[in-house]
Structure formats: C-alpha cells, structure tokens
Design a protein that fits this description.
Largest sheet: 4 strands, antiparallel
Shape: rod-shaped
Strand content: 5-15%
Distance between the termini: 52 Å
Structural class: alpha+beta
Radius of gyration: 41 Å
Length: 415
C-alpha cells in the first residue's frame, strides 16, 4: 500500500512538472499586462487622481487663518473735538479668520469629475501602449513555434538518414553500393547537426527576448502551445483606441461644464475674531476684542467673452478627436484587409505544399530501391531526400505564417 502511495505521488508530481513546462500565447499577453513597467502607471495614476480629488474636496471645508499685525505710522487722524485723544501711532491686531464656501455652482464637483475623466484617459493610453505589445509577442511566440517545428522535422530527417546510412553500410559490404555513398550521407548528417545547433542558439535568443518583453523568466526548455485561433467576424470587441476617443470626448464635455460653472455666482460666509488696539471702534485707544461675521457674494457678470472663446476651442478639440477616430478606423480597415489577404494567401500555399510533399514522397520511395540496388548514387538520392524535407519545412513555415497572420488579425480587430 505504501509503495502504491509513493508511485501515485510521483505520478502527480510528474503531471505538475509537465504542466509547468508549457506556455500559451494568452499567458504571454497576461504576463506583459501584469509585469511590463508601463503597466504600473495604471495604479500610480489612480493614486495620483485620488490625492488630487481629495485636495479639491477640501476646498469645501472652512478656511481658517491666523493673522497678526503690528504697525507704526508717522501720522494719525486727529479729532477737533476737545477731549478726544488722537489715535496711537503704534497699532496691534491679532485675529482668527474663518471663510466657509456656501455656493459656487458645483464647480468643485465638476473639477473632480474632470480629474477622474483625465485619469481614465491617461490610464487608457497606458492600456493602448500595452495592447500594442501584442504584435511583438506574436512575432516572438510564433518564431519560437517555427523553430520547434523545424527542430522536430530535422530530428525525424536525421533519424531517417541514420537508418539509411546503416542500409548503405550493408550494401557496401556486399559490394552493391560504392563506399563513397556512406561519406556523402555522413556529410549530410553533420549538416543536420549544424542546423540543430543553430536552431538551439536562435531559440535561446528568442526566449531571452520573450522573457525581457514579459518581464519574467521563461526557460528555453519551455514548450510553447500552438494556439487554436478561430476567426469569427461576428465577434468584435472594442479596440482600446476607440475607448480612448470616447473618454477624450467625455473629458471635453465635462470641461465645457466647468467653464459654465466658472461664471456662476460664488457665495462665502466669513467670520473674524481677535484682539487689537484699536479694536473695531477706531476712537478707543485701548486693546479691545474684535468680532465680525458676514456673507460675501461674487459674480463675474462680464469676462470679455473669455468663456465663449474657451468653449469654441473645446469644440475644435471635439473635431480633432473625430478626425483622429476616423483616421484610426481607416488605417484599421486597411490593416485588416492586408491581414485577410495574407491569411488567404498562406492557406492557398499550404494546399500546394501538401501536394508537393505527396509527390516528393512518391519520388523518394521510387529512388530508395534504386539506391539499395546501386542504380543511383547517394548524391542523387540525397537530392530527392533533401527536397522532401525542404518541402516539409516549407509547409511548417507557411502554417506558422498562417497562424501568425490569424493572431495579428485578432489583435488588429480587437478580439
């Protein structure tokens, strides 16, 4: 029973280990959005906005000032009435002043909404920058996938070549095949080893680039999962750029509201309490308490059409956003058309690749027997052998190009 538990544990660990050695395209997208340095700005922008809005809202609280003043003047008012002493030339005053906003037309709340929209706009721009990295990820990801496919083809080619070398050795022993045939095939085997070595170095470089882009450690032993990409024209998500245009228009509308509220009347209550010489009675040359409360209103009824001009500027900004959106949609349509053409072209080429491989395999089967019987040389056999695996490699290249085009199509479309 104990042995069974140990075996089960080892089996589960094996499964866990294998699961950790695979990586999907979506995993890479997630890693970039999570780890890329720019991604940190989304949270930082939110923190900055929270502080700024908090500061704006504090304008609703009473403003409290402590003032102290001591002065000396060379002349003071003299009263002609007998018995009234002239004011002191040295005067002193200390007060506590309180100002409380009562009404400003909702200007503070409007500015807070404007700040929130500005923050969302900045965060959306960060999201766009991160989204644009998907194309780079696609290029790296499918380049590694292609190297994996090429490596697999080369290994199969090498295995078949080694098997053929063994057959040739037997043929040489019986005098049916020339001794040079083995050397020709061995040279081709060394060439395959070179290609496998080159693939290993290229794969290492691409994995390093992918690790740098995703700000994570991705081992070159990791197996990348070939994504299944199904294009569906009925499913379309918003590109982050389109969301940015919406936020920019919203920001302009709120800015118009702020301008309108700037011209509304503002009402404040105020109060002053303190001690001074003289106090509020200027003819009393002694320290007296000071107390004053009141309400103050301010209304800028004429601003030389400043608000009107600023609103006109905002309307021009709306037109600018509209042209930017139109330009983006035009370029996006062109990119989709180009990528759709690339998908159709690759699909057609793949159909031809399959036909070529079938023909090459038939040819190779035919000359395989000829080599055994010494009718053709190893060099002639090697030409057709190489042609077959070149056709298989081309098929994998075109299949990878097709999947890359589909992935890029999805990115361009916003899915």
């Amino acid at each position: 029973m104990k042995n069974k538990l140990v075996l089960l544990l080892l089996f589960l660990l094996s499964i866990s280990s294998n699961a950790q050695q695979t990586l999907t395209l979506e995993d890479c997208y997630t890693l970039v959005k999570k780890n890329y340095p720019t991604a940190k700005q989304i949270e930082l922008l939110q923190q900055k906005s929270d502080f700024e809005i908090n500061a704006l809202n504090k304008s609703k609280l009473p403003k409290i000032d402590i003032n102290a003043q001591g002065t000396y003047q060379n002349q003071v008012i003299e009263f002609p009435t007998p018995g009234l002493e002239p004011l002191n030339k040295d005067q002193y005053k200390a007060t506590l002043d309180v100002n409380q906003l009562i009404y400003n037309g909702g200007l503070i709340d409007a500015n807070a909404r404007l700040k929130e929209t500005q923050t969302k706009t900045q965060q959306q721009q960060v999201d766009i920058n991160l989204y644009q990295l998907k194309s780079k990820i696609n290029q790296l990801y499918f380049s590694i996938l292609l190297l994996q496919e090429q490596k697999n083809i080369l290994i199969i080619k090498q295995e078949q070549l080694i098997s053929k070398i063994k057959e040739v050795k037997v043929g040489i022993q019986f005098g049916a095949i020339l001794p040079t045939s083995e050397k020709v095939l061995e040279a081709e085997n060394l060439k395959i080893k070179q290609q496998l070595s080159a693939i290993q170095f290229d794969k290492k470089r691409l994995f390093e680039n992918l690790s740098s882009l995703t700000y994570s450690t991705i081992s070159e032993t990791m197996t990348l999962v070939k994504p299944v990409i199904i294009l569906n024209a009925s499913e379309t998500k918003l590109r982050p750029e389109l969301k940015l245009f919406e936020l920019q228009n919203e920001q302009i509308e709120i800015s118009k509201s702020v301008l309108s509220k700037n011209n509304l009347p503002k009402i404040n209550a105020f109060g002053t309490a303190g001690y001074g010489n003289p106090g509020l009675n200027p003819v009393d040359n002694s320290f007296q308490p000071i107390l004053m409360v009141g309400v103050k209103a301010n209304w800028n009824v004429f601003d030389w059409n400043k608000s009107k001009t600023e609103k006109q500027a905002l309307m021009v900004s709306t037109d600018i956003v509209a042209t930017e959106k139109e330009t983006f949609l035009l370029n996006n349509t062109i990119q989709l058309q180009e990528m759709d053409n690339e998908i159709k072209k690759s699909a057609e080429i793949i159909t031809t690749d399959v036909e070529i491989i079938n023909l090459r395999e038939n040819v190779l089967q035919s000359i395989n027997a000829q080599l055994k019987n010494g009718v053709i040389t190893a060099s002639e056999y090697l030409v057709e052998f190489t042609n077959l695996y070149e056709a298989k490699t081309n098929l994998k290249i075109h299949e990878t190009q097709l999947e890359l085009a589909r992935a890029n199509y999805q990115v361009i479309k916003g899915n």
